[in-house]
Design brief:
The complex is a heterodimer of chains A (307) and B (551).
Chain A (H helix, E strand, L loop, with lengths): L1 H28 L4 H5 L7 H10 L6 H13 L12 H36 L4 H15 L2 H15 L16 H26 L3 H8 L4 H30 L2 H6 L5 H11 L2 H29 L7
Chain B lengths: L4 H17 L20 E6 L14 H10 L5 E2 L6 E2 L4 E6 L4 E6 L13 H12 L42 E5 L2 E5 L7 H4 L10 H5 L1 H6 L7 E3 L8 E6 L13 E6 L3 H9 L5 E2 L7 H8 L3 E5 L2 E6 L10 H9 L3 H9 L3 E3 L23 H10 L8 E6 L5 H15 L3 E7 L1 H9 L7 E6 L10 H4 L17 H11 L4 H18 L2 E13 L3 E2 L15 E2 L2
Parallel strand pairs in B: 1-10, 15-16
Antiparallel strand pairs in B: 2-3, 4-5, 5-7, 6-7, 8-9, 9-10, 11-18, 12-18, 13-17, 13-18, 14-18, 19-20
Classes of the chains: A mainly alpha (307), B alpha+beta (551).
C-alpha cells in the first residue's frame, strides 16, 4: 500500500509540470495587451508600460517566459500579480476560504445525500423514493446562479436566518453557500446511493446475512451500504476537486474571498503567474483526492488490494 | 489664475454656512484637537477590490482611490458643490507670477499618522518617486508637465524594451525652499495647475514609505482624516480609524469606517437592504428603478464628472468629412436611449465639457440633438455611400452592447445606413487596436475627469500631443488652432480668460467634430438608517469624513 501511494504521488510531478505548461500556454494565447489595459482609457506612460513588461517578462518569447517562470518556481518564487502581490500570499490567504466552503459542501452532500439515497433505496417506489426522485430532479435542473440568488434573498434577506455575504460569522457564514454549492451534487449522490443500495439489497450476501438472523439495521449499514458506497465515494472524490475550482459563482454571490474568484479575475487580467499557480494547485487537489478515493476502495472492499 | 488663501477662506466660510443650514454640524474650524470633531460610532462602506497597492502614486481607479482619499489629504481639496479647488488641504497658498513657476506654501501643524511632520520634502520626494519610471507607478504621467520629468523616464527601443536607466532621479522643476515652501517649475504655463494638485497622485509620502514601499501599500501611513491601524485584507477590506491629530478642517465625524470589499454589486445591495452595510455608492443597474422608492431620502443621485462619446476614426476616409460625423451625431436620440436603456441615469450631452466643471455651456453643441432631416441633408452633400454598413466598435463585457445596438438602430432608421456591431474585443485588445488606428467605424469612448477643470475634457482627448501612444486622443484629431487655443487657456492670467480660451477651443472642436458627445453619467447610491450626511461627490467617492453615525 505504502509503495503504491508513493508511486502515485511521484507520478503527480510530471502531471503538474505538464498541466502548468498547458495553462501557461493558454494564458499566453489570450489575445490582447494586459499592460495596455491596466490604464484603461488613459494609458500609462510609455516608460512605465515598458518597465512593467520587462518586470513580467512579457516581451520574451513564450518558451523563455515559461522557463523563467519554472526557474523562479524552483526557488520557491510563485511570481506576483500585476500589482506586485505575491501569488503565494494570495493562495495562503484565500485557500482557507475555499477549503472551508468545500468541506461544508461535501459534508452536506455526503451526509444528506447518502441518508436520502439509503432511505429511498430500501423502499423502492415508496413515498420517500418518489420524493427524493422528484426533488433531486428539480434541484439538478435549476442553474446554480438562480439557486444562489434565491437562497440569499429568501433565507438571508427575508427570513434573516443566514448572513447574506462575507465570512464575518465564521463557519456559520459558509452554511448557506455550502448548501447552494452542494445542491446539485447532493441530488446525484442521493440517486447514486439509491440505485446502488437497491441493487445490492438483492445480492446473495444480503440474503445470507438476513438468513443468519442479523438485525435489519446491521444488514443495511454494515453489509449493503458498505458495498454500495464504492460508486458514491468515486463521485464525491472527483467532486471535491470540481467544487474547489468551480465555486466561482457561489463565491461571487455570497462574497466569499476564495480562490475561484481570484482565478477568474486573474484570467480576465491575463495575469499568467496567478492563473498558473492557482489552477495547478486545483489540478494537484484533483489528483490527490482521486488517490484518496483509490485508497478508500481497499478499505471499503477488502477484495481490492494494491500490493 | 491665482488661488490664494483669501478666496479659499471665502469658500470655506460658505461651505460651513451651508453645513449649519442643513444642520449637519461636522468638523469645527480650528481643527485637530483631540476628538473635537467626532460624534463617534462606526459605519461600513461598500467597495470593489482595489486594483493596486494603496499608494497614491499608483492608484488610478475608483475603488483604491476611495480608500487612499480617506488616508491622505493633498495640497487642495474640491468643493463638493462647485467642484472648485479650496484651500482646506495642506497648502496655505499656491501662487505664480507667470503661471509656470509655482510657489507652494504649506500650513503649519500637519503630521503623518506616524507622527512625523508633513514638509515640502514629503511632497517633492513623493512626486519624484511617482514620476521615476523604474518605479512603474501608474500615475507617473500626472507629473509630465513638470520640468525635468523626461529625465526620469527610462529610454526604450522601438519594440518597447527598456534599454537603460533614466538620466536623473529627481525632477529639476521641483525645488525645496524650506520646510514649508517648495517651488514647482512647469514645462509650459498651466494656470489650472493648483487645481490638479487635488488629484490622488499628488499626495505627500512619509519617510516610512521609502523604507518599505510594499508594506506601505498594504497599510499606508497618510496624513488624512483616517488612519490604517491594520493592513488591507484582499477580498475582505480594511477598517480605518479617525486620526485625532488631523490638522485639516475636514476631520472625520465617526470613530471608524470599514471598507468592505464585495465582488458583486448585487450582493452589496442585498446586504444594504438587510442593513448589514451602511453605504453603497454604486447601485447595480437593474435595481435603480426600485431603489428610489425603497430608500426614499436615503437614495442619492449625483452628477459625475465624466463623458461618454461616439468617437470617429478621423483617419478613415469615410469619416474624414466633419459633416458626415455631424450627421451621425444628429441621427442619435440621446434622451430615448437614456430612458429606454439606462433608466434615465444618463444625461444627454450638449458639450464636450461636463456640466460639473466651470466652463460648461448648456447649448454648446448644436448637432447633439436628433435632427434626421438635417442629418440626411449633410450626408447627401458629403456624398456618403449609404449602401455600405458602418462598423460600431465597443469593448466587450462592460455593458455597452445594448446602447451601442440602440445607436445602430437609430442610425439605420434615421440615415438608412446599416450597421455591424464590433463588440467582441476585451479592453486589452480593444485599446491597442484604438491606439493603432484600427477602428473601422464610430466607436465608444469614455472619459472620467482626473481633476475638475474644463481643460481635462479637451487637452488629453483632442490635442495633437495626446495622440497615442502618448495619450488618449484615439480619434487622432489634430488641429493646430485647437492646440493653440488650449495653450492660451493654460497660460491665461485669470480664470475667466482661461475659460474663454477653453470655450474657444471647444468651438473649434464642435466645428471639426472628431467625436459626438453622448452622455454624462448620474451615479446612484443609497445608505442605511445608521448613517446621515452621506455625500457622494462628482468623482463617485463617498466623503467619509462628513458621514455621521446616528443609529
Amino acid at each position: 500500500m505504502g509503495r503504491y501511494v508513493a508511486r502515485r504521488l511521484l507520478l503527480t510531478i510530471p502531471v503538474l509540470i505538464g498541466a502548468s505548461f498547458l495553462i501557461f500556454a493558454l494564458v499566453y494565447a489570450l489575445p490582447g495587451d494586459p499592460i495596455r489595459a491596466l490604464g484603461g482609457d488613459r494609458p500609462l506612460s510609455p516608460a512605465v508600460q515598458a518597465e512593467l513588461r520587462e518586470e513580467f517578462n512579457l516581451n520574451d518569447p513564450f518558451v523563455i517566459q515559461y522557463v523563467k517562470y519554472l526557474g523562479d518556481l524552483v526557488q520557491g518564487d510563485f511570481g506576483t500579480d500585476f500589482r506586485g502581490r505575491e501569488v503565494l500570499d494570495t493562495i495562503e490567504q484565500r485557500l482557507p476560504v475555499t477549503v472551508r466552503l468545500t468541506v461544508v459542501a461535501i459534508a452536506i452532500e455526503a451526509v444528506i445525500g447518502i441518508i436520502a439515497g439509503v432511505l429511498a433505496g430500501i423502499r423502492r417506489n415508496g413515498f420517500l423514493d418518489n420524493l427524493v426522485l422528484v426533488s433531486s430532479t428539480i434541484i439538478v435542473s435549476i442553474p446554480i446562479l438562480v439557486l444562489a440568488f434565491v437562497a440569499q434573498f429568501v433565507f438571508g434577506l427575508q427570513f434573516g436566518w443566514f448572513p447574506i455575504a462575507g465570512i464575518g460569522d465564521g463557519w456559520y457564514s459558509y452554511l448557506l453557500p455550502g448548501m447552494v454549492l452542494a445542491a446539485g451534487s447532493l441530488a446525484y449522490v442521493a440517486r447514486l446511493t439509491r440505485t446502488s443500495v437497491a441493487e445490492n439489497l438483492r445480492g446473495d450476501y444480503v440474503r445470507t446475512a438476513r438468513a443468519k438472523g442479523l438485525p435489519k439495521r446491521t444488514v443495511i449499514v454494515r453489509h449493503t451500504l458498505r458495498n454500495s458506497l464504492i460508486p458514491v465515494v468515486t463521485f464525491i472524490g472527483a467532486d471535491i476537486g470540481t467544487l474547489m475550482g468551480g465555486a466561482i459563482v457561489t463565491e461571487s454571490v455570497f462574497n466569499l474571498p476564495g480562490l475561484g474568484r481570484a482565478v477568474y479575475d486573474a484570467i480576465r487580467a491575463q495575469e499568467g503567474a496567478v492563473v498558473v499557480g492557482i489552477v495547478t494547485l486545483f489540478v494537484f487537489f484533483f489528483i490527490f483526492f482521486n488517490l484518496v478515493v483509490d485508497v478508500l476502495y481497499a478499505v471499503l472492499d477488502p477484495r481490492i488490494r494494491y500490493d | 489664475m491665482r488661488l490664494s488663501k483669501r478666496s479659499a477662506v471665502l469658500v470655506a466660510t460658505g461651505l460651513s454656512g451651508a453645513m449649519v443650514l442643513s444642520a449637519c454640524g461636522g468638523g469645527d474650524d480650528d481643527g485637530g484637537t483631540g476628538a473635537a470633531g467626532g460624534d463617534g460610532g462606526s459605519f461600513s462602506v461598500y467597495i470593489g477590490e482595489p486594483e493596486n497597492p494603496l499608494v497614491p502614486g499608483n492608484t488610478n481607479e475608483t475603488e483604491g482611490g476611495q480608500i487612499v482619499d480617506s488616508l491622505f489629504t493633498r495640497l487642495v481639496q474640491y468643493d463638493v458643490e462647485t467642484n472648485e479647488a479650496v484651500f482646506t488641504g495642506v497648502a496655505e497658498s499656491i501662487e505664480s507670477e507667470d503661471q509656470q513657476t509655482w510657489t507652494v506654501n504649506l500650513k503649519e501643524g500637519w503630521t503623518f499618522h506616524d507622527g512625523t511632520p508633513v514638509t515640502a520634502q514629503s511632497f517633492v520626494d513623493a512626486w519624484n518617486y511617482t514620476a521615476y519610471s523604474p518605479n512603474a507607478q501608474g500615475n507617473s504621467y500626472f507629473f509630465s508637465n513638470i520640468a525635468g520629468y523626461d529625465q526620469l523616464q527610462a529610454p526604450t527601443d522601438d519594440a518597447g524594451n527598456v534599454t537603460g536607466e533614466p538620466a536623473a532621479t529627481e525632477m529639476s522643476g521641483l525645488r525645496v525652499i524650506d520646510d514649508r515652501t517648495f517651488e514647482v517649475e512647469l514645462t509650459s504655463p498651466y494656470a489650472q495647475w493648483p487645481t490638479t494638485t487635488g488629484y490622488t497622485a499628488f499626495a505627500p509620502l512619509p519617510e516610512a514609505f521609502f523604507e518599505d514601499p510594499e508594506g506601505f501599500g498594504e497599510q499606508p501611513i497618510g496624513n488624512g482624516p483616517f488612519q490604517a491601524e491594520e493592513a488591507l485584507v484582499p477580498g475582505q477590506g480594511i477598517t480605518l480609524t479617525r486620526y485625532d491629530d488631523y490638522a485639516g478642517e475636514t476631520e472625520g465625524n465617526a470613530d471608524s469606517v470599514e471598507y468592505r470589499i464585495y465582488t458583486e454589486q448585487n450582493t452589496a445591495y442585498t446586504d444594504l437592504q438587510a442593513g448589514n452595510v451602511d453605504i453603497v455608492d454604486q447601485l447595480p443597474p437593474e435595481v435603480i428603478a426600485s431603489a428610489e422608492g425603497e430608500f426614499g431620502d436615503r437614495y442619492l443621485e449625483t452628477a459625475q464628472g465624466d463623458i461618454t462619446s461616439l468617437g470617429f476614426p478621423t483617419y478613415d476616409q469615410r469619416f474624414a468629412d466633419p459633416n458626415v460625423r455631424k450627421a451621425f451625431s444628429m441621427a442619435i436620440d440621446r434622451q430615448a436611449i437614456s430612458d429606454a436603456i439606462f433608466n434615465g441615469t444618463r444625461t444627454p450631452a450638449t458639450s464636450y465639457i461636463s456640466p460639473v466643471v466651470d466652463g460648461f455651456r448648456e447649448d454648446a453643441c448644436q448637432v447633439c440633438e436628433l435632427n434626421a432631416e438635417e442629418a440626411n441633408r449633410l450626408l447627401d452633400e458629403a456624398g456618403f455611400d449609404r449602401s455600405q454598413p458602418v462598423d460600431l466598435w465597443f469593448n466587450a463585457g462592460a455593458g455597452h452592447d445594448a446602447w451601442m445596438e440602440a445607436i445602430g438602430n437609430q442610425i439605420r432608421e434615421n440615415l438608412g445606413v446599416d450597421y455591424n456591431l464590433q463588440g467582441n474585443l476585451d479592453f486589452s485588445e480593444y485599446l491597442p487596436l484604438q491606439d493603432a488606428q484600427g477602428m473601422t467605424g464610430p466607436f465608444r469612448s469614455g472619459w472620467i475627469m482626473d481633476y475638475p477643470v474644463a481643460e481635462n475634457f479637451l487637452g488629453p482627448l483632442y490635442s495633437t500631443a495626446a495622440i497615442p501612444p502618448a495619450g488618449s486622443n484615439v480619434t487622432f484629431y489634430s488641429n493646430p488652432e485647437f492646440d493653440q487655443a488650449i495653450a492660451e487657456g493654460n497660460s491665461a492670467e485669470s480664470n475667466d480668460a482661461a475659460i474663454e480660451a477653453y470655450q474657444n477651443a471647444e468651438d473649434i472642436l464642435l466645428e471639426d467634430f472628431p467625436a459626438a458627445p453622448l452622455f454624462y453619467r448620474l451615479n446612484q447610491g443609497a445608505h442605511s438608517e445608521n448613517v446621515d450626511n452621506v455625500i457622494i461627490d462628482a468623482f463617485g467617492r463617498v466623503r467619509v469624513a462628513d458621514v455621521q453615525v446616528v443609529g
